[in-house]
Amino acid sequence: MALRLVLAVVFIAHGAHRLFGLFAGPAIGVGGPEATAQIFATMGLEPNFPLAVLAGGLALVGGVLLAIGRFTRIAAPILALMTLIAVWKTQWQWGFFLNWVAAPDRGQGMEFSVVVIGALVCLALTGAGDWSIDGRRAHSAAARSAGRARLRGKI
């Protein structure tokens, strides 16, 4: 549950920044779909504005789905693929490590994204867990199935 909620916070924050410009500041930039589209244009992603809205929407909705634990096995791989695209388009060229010394001539490596992708793969393989909507639905379905099996055995 903790892993799912931490990832949810990260993706909700990034989605809100990309779509609405929330959390704007010197460390992260202006935000909003226009600013995100400009960043996507520098990466060579076209059409940049629709992709910016799509990426923001996927991050926001995917984060909310992770938070409530609904469709986790679908949302997690989509978010992992989106993060993998970010690694490919922006971080690969800078190597593995983050820019810990804040060198102005160097971008961020893929270290954090690799951790996020690994965590999302774990969620995709294991599911949301017992304390989630998916987990409660699985327990209810198992209980109904066991009840039907007991009834069939008595008839």
Describe the structure in your own words:
By secondary structure, the chain is mainly α. The chain has one domain (about 1-155). Helices cover about 70% and strands about 0% of the residues. It contains 6 helices and no strands. The chain has helices spanning about 1-20, 30-45, 50-70, 70-90, 110-125, 135-155. The longest helix has 22 residues, at about 135-155. It is elongated and about 75 Å long. The protein starts with a helix and ends with a helix.
Descriptive labels:
mainly alpha
Quick summary of this structure?
The protein is an all-alpha fold and 155 residues long. The chain is 71% helix and 0% strand.
What is the ordering of alpha helices and beta strands? HHHHHH
Total domains, how many? 1
Regions with little confidence, pLDDT below 50 for 5+ residues:
none
**Continuous helix count:** 6
Total beta-strand segments: 0
- Percent in helix: over 70%
Largest sheet composition: none
Q: What value does the Rg take, in angstroms?
A: 19 Å
Which structural category fits the helices and strands? mainly alpha
Into which percentage range does the β-strand content fall?
A: under 5%
What is the distance, rounded to the nearest whole angstrom, between the alpha carbons of the first and last residues? 41 Å
Mean pLDDT, to the nearest integer, reads 93
Estimate the global geometry from the Cα principal axes: elongated
